Amino acid sequence: PGSVEPVGDALWVSQQGSNSVVKIDPDTGEQLASVTVGIAPVWPADAGDETLLVPNARSNTVSRIDTTTNQVIQTIRVGGGPVVFRRAFGDLWLTHLRGVLWRLRVG
């Protein structure tokens, strides 16, 4: 397993080996859903609007998942090996392996 991000009443875990993220019930440990994303998903982030943003390090994209339907609703091309999202100053910030910093306004 990769990184874990809480969204609502579930945990989302990145799975680099299967290019997916899984939704887990934290009380039972039961897998509630599995969503296929890009290649090598890493640190997912709660976008704050019932969506999850998943950087896909080897496909140079970010997958946006609707956490109520468990479906990818948008694929954003970002280039440069996206790695980590962090929330700061009201927005999400995405770092890249090549030293690029992107600001993503959500909401």
Structural commentary:
With 107 residues, this protein is an all-beta fold. Helix content is 0%, strand content 55%. The strands form 3 sheets. A 4-stranded antiparallel beta sheet has the order 1-2-3-4, with no helix packed on it. The termini are far apart.
* CA-atom Rg in angstroms: 13 Å
Number of helices: 0
Helix content: under 10%
Summarize the biggest pleated sheet. 4 strands, antiparallel
Shape: globular
Q: Which ranges are low-confidence, i.e. pLDDT below 50, for 5 or more consecutive residues?
A: none
Strand order of the largest sheet: 1-2-3-4
Whole-number average pLDDT? 90
Distance between the termini: 29 Å
**Secondary-structure element string:** EEEEEEEEEEE
Secondary-structure class: mainly beta
Instruction: Determine the strand fraction and express it as a percent band.
Output: over 45%
Q: What is the tally of beta strands?
A: 11
